[in-house]
Structures are given as structure tokens and as C-alpha cells.
UniProtKB/TrEMBL annotation, chain B:
PANTHER family: ARABINOSE-BINDING PROTEIN-RELATED, BLR3389 PROTEIN. It comes from Nonomuraea polychroma. This is Raffinose/stachyose/melibiose transport system substrate-binding protein. PROSITE patterns: TAT. It comes from the Bacteria. InterPro entries: Bact_solute-bd_prot1, SBP, TAT_signal. SUPFAM superfamilies: Periplasmic binding protein-like II (SSF53850).
Length: 301, 434
């Protein structure tokens, strides 16, 4: 690998042939399948965003940018953007914070760490809809049941519009903190022990070693985690749909639930595609900006 | 990440064993599918397979009637699958949109939801049933639910009503002798129930469609009793939710909450919890549609404890009206290969004895009645109203699929104290105009 990287410049032409062409050939079948089942449907679907198609029947006419103009004036869709962003910020902050703490915990030389890793990771493999149903029991508004009973509270977790959005964030964090943990853990395993030993010899305490040795080297894991949880938060659908269906009122409506309802409840497939397109572009833009800034602060050991 | 993959190297032996395993698994699956295919065609007779997709409420009558039909016509096989309302809307609309509709499928009467007769018939996807004998007997008041431009596109076995499902034992314990017939009597009954230590009215407003039932129960008295042509005026733009008896109905809805007649946290309570509260005697009643009576009976230890009465939305018993809506039905796909066979099955459903059987299974009032029609004792008290003091469920004549979800959402907001009646009615009027 290292030899390949330091090849002299005059062999560039041959390198392009030997190193570039064959990989493309190898990837071609996969790319063809990908283009057929992912790219083509995705791009051909975009056409609907410029029509008034109802989702059934043949009646369809091109309406130009009308769907996008409707979106700008759609109070409910605009409100849902606010909810989407709040939810995303909450999930990104808490999920990664908890994930990092869990990773530091199970990275320590505990006897039960293998078991703990499995336990913390296990919610990730459960279907999101199942998680929502489970949490509907935990979020039982009855003061003697579920979380209320455990903490002695009287909160209507999913029924109170000012709490419901955070309750959803809570169940998402519960499910995916283990996922962030695994990625941080991979980062922690990659920190060379010599650096820690050197820092210790220099007299650095636990916090200082974390701050000046571990944290900078965790940067790639931070980048991946922030990006994945941001994308996940912006696109969140299953848990909301199963737990509150966007309610009470419009308190937990996000862009995903709006586009679902427009397509399948209101019968406005064209408009729904326009919302989906805006969501996709939004997610892409946020992720690109995020990766650009986070990549700049990455260092390697 | 890539380093992890590099380290997980396979030896050639391991790789070959893995591939061998996959091949074996594939072969096993192939065998099992082949066996299944032989089993289905093993009858020897050429069969027409009619595919039906319905909602959960239709399972009991449909299973029974499809079996009866197959006995009389062995060459036809009906394969049915069922899903809850919201899921059916998604999956079925996707299939309709993709052009592979099932031969028979659920259709909601009238207009106002994405799977309603008008919306699907307008897209040209429903077969015209007008030539069938039973369509001649559809009562005049129900025609807008069945017909578009004078042609019938949906079969439905009859109508259901919205009223209060109540637990007779709980009423007895609270010292209530007879169901109320005026609004003030209704409030007095709630008061007595509250004093006896139960929640007077169970409300599962977390399940969106449950939120609408109390308004639907009151609006016939507050709106239509005063102006039976309200729908036409609203369609013509001469009437609105905000300037009508809808405001009174919403105020009455909130009065029930203000007086503490609902269970705690209705927005955090589901339909299933609501059902069990009434069935187990933790609540006195629930405002519900008669089609779900079987659910309440299933949840009760003795089903006979449960009955229904009309919710009186007026202080004069003579101006109490009730909502009576055509129950969810089915239609035949216009474009399917088996359209003729599918229509023949619907013709069979239209026979009086089959209308009777369907209506009985879901506690509905049969579309047309003969000597053998039986009407569920729980809905007997509604019969005096059905002739001239009943109106279809409000959404069946709304012009688009958006008003109903807005109604769900504003009720949840009102119950949570996050909105006012003015704002709620304004939002509904806006959705109506879309």
C-alpha cells in the first residue's frame, strides 16, 4: 500500500490505466444494478414533484413550480420544519453525548464490558415500530404506571403537545445511543496506547489525557456520528408515526410525516414528492456542510 | 472502518463453504415454493382467483360470505387480506397508483377520504355496478354515499350510528334509571357517574379517528336539525364551520372536559384503552360508532352489560338528531382481468339474506330489510330517528380528504388547551376551501 502511494510521477500514465480502469470494471455490475433499482426510480420520481398527480388514475398535468410555492405558504409544512430541526438538534446532542459516555464506560477494563456492550447495543437491532409500541407503555400517562410510576411524575408524555416532541427524542436516543457508542468505541480502540503512556509520563491526569489525546483522535468517529445522527434525525418517521402520528394536534409533525400524509391521506402525490425533494436536498446540504467543517479538524495518530 | 474489513479475512475454504451453504439454502427455498404451487393447482379444476383487500372491520362478514359464495361457485376462489384503516389507505393507494389493483377492495362511502368512492371513481378505477338489482333499492338519502353522477360504484351492507356505548351495570350502580334524552339530562347522568367514582366518558383521543366522534354525535342536533340543507349551503360557499352550530358542538365538547367528565389525559389514551375502560366498568360510557360494538363486547366479561343510546345534542328531545352513516363497503376494480367475476360476487352480496348476514356481523342496520333482517338490540333505540332525524357522517360530503385530519388535530389541540374554538373552526374552514 505505502509503495503504491509513493510511486514516481513519470509512471502516472500507466498507473491511471492499472489503478483506475480495472476497479471501474469490477464495480460496473454493481453500479448497473444500483442505477436500475435506486438511481432511475429516484430520478424518475422527481418528475412528479412538478405535477398535480393524485397518486391514482391517469389525470396529471405539469404545474411547474406551483408545488414548491404551495410549500412556502403551507403553515403546517413550515411548522413541521421547526419540529424537524428541534428534534434533530436534541437527538444529535443527547444521542452522541450518551453514546460517548457509554463508549468510555465500556472501553474501561471492566469485567462485564463485553456483556454491557451487547446490552447497550441491543435496542439498535429492534424494529423502530416495535420500539415505539414499547415506549407507548413506558410513556403511559397513568401516574402509577410506566415511567411516571417509576419517577413519581404526572406527565402525559405523548399526549401533552409541549412534551410530546421531547418524548419522541427520548425514545430515539434510547434506541440509537448504542449505535453511536459502537462507532466511538471503534475510535477509542484506535487510539495508540503509547500516546496515553507518554502523556501519563508527562504527568497528565485522566481528564487531560481525554482532552488532549483521546478527543482529537476521536475526530473521525465524531464526524461519522454527527453526520449519521443528523441524517437520521432529519428523516425520522417510523417512531413518530407509530407513537403519535404527528399529534397531539401538530406537535410532532415533521417533514417526513407531512410528506407521508400528503401522499397517502390527502391524495396529493405530486405535492408530496415536492416535499420529499426539498427534504432530500436539505439533508444533503446539511450533511455536506457538516462533513466539510468536521473533516478539517480531524487529525491522525 | 476499512481496517476492520481487511482484518476479517476469509480463507478460501471458509469462502467456499459459505457459498455452498447459500446455494443449499437457495435450493431449499426453491423446492418449498415449487411444492406450494403444486398444492394450489392440485385441485385439477381451472379456478378464477379473486383478490380482495379489506379493512379489519370487514373480516368477520367477508370470511363468512366468501365461503358461502365459493360453495355455490366452486370455480371462483376469493383470497382476502385485511389491515387496519390507515394501513389499508397506504398500501391500497400504492397498488391503485401502480396499476395493479386487487379485483375487489375496500371503498369508503361518499367523498372526504383518500380511499372514498368519489375519489377512486373519479380516477376511473371502480367498476360501474348500476346494472345490479340491489342498487335499485338504495334509500334516497344514502344515494350520495353510493353514487357519483347517478352511477353506483360501491356496495355497502347498511348503516351504522354514532352514540354512547354504555355499561348498564355501571349506570345501575350510579343510580341512573334510564338513558338521557336531552343535553341537560346527559350532563346530569355524567355528574352521577362522576360522583359514583368512575370516569363518566372514556375518551381515547390519542387514536386520531376517535377524536371526531363526540362532535359528530352533537352536530346533527346543533346544525342539521336547524338546517337540513347545511351541506349544500357549505358546498355553495354560503355557510361555514365558524358561523354555524359547529361552534355550539365544540363548546359542548369542551364543556364535558371542563366539568371533568373525561378520563385523565385523553390525548395520551388510545381507542383500545377507551374500549377496555367501558368494558371493565372503569368508565360509564364512550361515544363511539356502533360498528365497533363487537370490540367492546369482546373486551367485556359479560357482553350483555353493554348497550347504546343516542347522544342528545339538544335540550328539546324532539330536536335531537343522530348521525347515521353508510358503513365501509367494497368495490370492484374496473381495470382488472376478472372484473366480471368480481361484479358477480358483489351482485351476490346484494341479495337480501347476504345483506342481513353482513349487517348482523357488524351490528349495523341493514341497507334494506325483510322479515328475516335482525337488528342488534343495542341499536334499537336509534331506529325511531333513522327515518327523518338522521344525517350521514359529516365527512362523507366534505369536498376533499383534508378536512377530516384537520378536525382530528384541532380537537387534540383543544383538549390540550393549546388552541381556541375560533382557531380550530378557522383551520377547518381553510381546509374545506382547499
Amino acid at each position: 500500500m505505502t509503495a503504491g502511494r509513493s510511486r514516481p510521477a513519470h509512471r502516472g500514465a500507466r498507473r491511471r490505466f492499472s489503478a483506475a480502469s480495472p476497479p471501474w470494471l469490477f464495480a460496473a455490475p454493481a453500479l448497473a444494478v444500483y442505477a436500475l433499482v435506486v438511481l432511475y426510480p429516484a430520478i424518475s420520481g422527481v418528475v412528479y414533484a412538478f405535477t398535480d398527480w393524485s397518486g391514482i388514475g391517469q389525470d396529471m398535468s405539469f404545474v411547474g413550480l406551483a408545488n414548491f410555492r404551495t410549500l412556502l405558504g403551507d403553515e403546517q409544512a413550515m411548522g413541521s420544519i421547526g419540529n424537524t430541526l428541534l428534534l434533530t438538534v436534541a437527538i444529535v446532542a443527547v444521542q452522541n453525548g450518551v453514546g460517548l459516555l457509554l463508549a468510555l464506560g465500556v472501553h474501561a477494563r471492566l469485567k462485564s464490558r463485553a456483556l454491557l456492550r451487547v446490552i447497550f447495543f441491543s435496542p439498535v437491532v429492534v424494529s423502530p415500530v416495535m420500539v415505539a409500541f414499547l415506549w407507548k407503555y413506558i410513556y403511559n400517562p397513568d401516574p402509577s404506571a410506566g415511567l411516571n410510576g417509576l419517577l413519581g411524575l404526572h406527565v402525559d408524555w405523548l399526549g401533552d403537545p409541549s412534551v410530546a416532541l421531547w418524548s419522541i427524542a427520548g425514545m430515539v436516543v434510547w434506541q440509537y445511543a448504542g449505535y453511536s457508542m459502537v462507532i466511538f468505541l471503534a475510535g477509542l480502540e484506535g487510539v495508540p496506547r503509547e500516546l496515553h503512556e507518554a502523556a501519563m509520563i508527562d504527568g497528565a491526569g485522566t481528564f487531560q489525557r481525554f482532552r488532549y489525546v483521546t478527543w482529537p483522535l476521536l475526530a473521525p468517529a465524531v464526524t461519522i456520528n454527527l453526520m449519521l445522527s443528523t441524517i437520521g434525525g432529519l428523516k425520522l418517521f417510523d417512531q413518530i408515526f407509530a407513537a403519535t402520528n404527528g399529534g397531539p394536534g401538530y406537535a410532532t409533525e415533521t417533514l417526513s410525516t407531512v410528506l407521508y400524509k400528503q401522499a397517502f391521506v390527502f391524495g396529493k402525490f405530486g405535492y408530496s414528492t415536492a416535499v420529499a425533494l426539498v427534504l432530500a436536498l436539505f439533508v444533503a446540504a446539511v450533511s455536506l456542510v457538516q462533513v466539510y467543517y468536521l473533516r478539517r479538524r480531524e487529525v491522525t495518530a | 472502518m476499512t481496517d476492520l474489513l481487511h482484518e476479517a479475512r476469509l480463507s478460501r475454504g471458509q469462502f467456499l463453504r459459505m457459498v455452498g451453504g447459500l446455494a443449499a439454502a437457495a435450493a431449499a427455498t426453491a423446492c418449498s415454493t415449487r411444492q406450494e404451487t403444486t398444492a394450489t393447482t392440485g385441485g385439477g379444476q381451472a379456478t378464477t382467483e379473486l383478490k380482495f383487500i379489506g379493512v379489519a372491520d370487514q373480516k368477520a362478514p367477508m370470511d363468512q360470505l366468501a365461503a358461502a359464495y365459493q360453495k355455490s361457485k366452486p370455480a371462483v376462489r376469493i383470497t382476502a387480506s385485511y389491515a387496519p384503516t390507515d394501513q389499508v389507505q397506504t398500501s391500497l393507494r400504492t397498488q391503485l397508483g401502480a396499476g395493479n389493483a386487487p379485483d375487489l377492495h375496500v371503498v369508503y362511502p361518499g367523498n372526504g377520504s383518500a380511499m372514498s368512492m368519489t375519489q377512486i371513481a373519479q380516477a376511473g378505477l371502480l367498476a360501474d355496478l348500476s346494472a345490479q338489482a340491489w342498487t335499485q333499492t338504495i334509500p334516497a338519502g344514502f344515494k350520495p354515499a353510493f353514487q357519483l353522477d347517478g352511477k353506483t360504484y360501491i356496495f355497502s351492507a347498511g348503516s351504522s350510528v354514532i352514540g354512547a356505548v354504555y355499561n348498564k351495570k355501571v349506570f345501575e350502580k350510579a343510580g341512573i334509571e334510564a338513558p338521557p334524552t336531552t343535553w341537560s339530562e346527559f350532563l346530569a347522568v355524567c355528574d352521577k357517574l362522576k360522583k359514583s367514582g368512575v370516569a363518566p366518558i372514556a375518551l381515547g383521543a390519542q387514536t386520531p379517528w376517535v377524536t371526531q366522534l363526540i362532535t359528530y354525535a352533537l352536530v346533527p342536533s346543533t346544525v342539521y336539525a336547524k338546517d337540513p340543507t347545511f351541506d349544500d349551503k357549505q358546498l355553495a360557499g354560503q355557510a361555514s364551520f365558524a358561523d354555524s352550530g359547529w361552534r355550539d358542538a365544540m363548546e359542548m365538547y369542551l364543556e364535558l372536559q371542563k366539568r371533568g367528565f373525561f378520563n385523565d389525559n385523553p390525548n395520551g389514551t388510545t381507542f383500545e384503552q377507551q374500549t377496555s375502560m367501558v368494558a371493565t366498568g372503569k368508565a360509564g360510557m364512550a361515544v363511539q360508532v356502533s360498528a365497533v360494538l363487537p370490540d367492546f363486547r369482546k373486551a367485556a366479561s359479560s357482553p350483555d352489560d353493554l348497550s347504546m343510546f343516542p347522544v342528545p345534542g339538544a335540550d328539546d328531545a324532539n330536536s335531537v338528531w343522530i348521525p347515521a352513516g353508510v358503513v365501509v363497503g367494497l368495490g370492484a376494480s374496473a381495470k382488472g382481468k376478472n372484473a366480471e367475476e368480481a361484479k358477480a360476487f358483489i351482485d351476490f352480496l346484494g341479495k337480501q339474506e347476504n345483506i342481513n348476514a353482513w349487517a348482523k356481523a357488524i351490528a349495523a342496520i341493514p341497507l334494506t330489510q325483510d322479515a328475516s333482517s335482525s337488528i342488534d338490540p343495542a341499536v334499537q333505540s336509534f331506529l325511531p330517528f333513522t327515518k327523518d332525524r338522521a344525517v350521514p357522517f359529516m365527512d362523507q360530503r366534505w369536498p376533499n380528504a383534508e378536512v377530516q385530519p384537520v378536525h382530528f388535530a384541532v380537537i387534540q389541540e383543544l383538549l390540550a388547551g393549546k388552541s381556541t374554538i375560533d382557531e380550530a373552526l378557522k383551520k377547518m374552514d381553510e381546509a374545506y376551501k382547499k
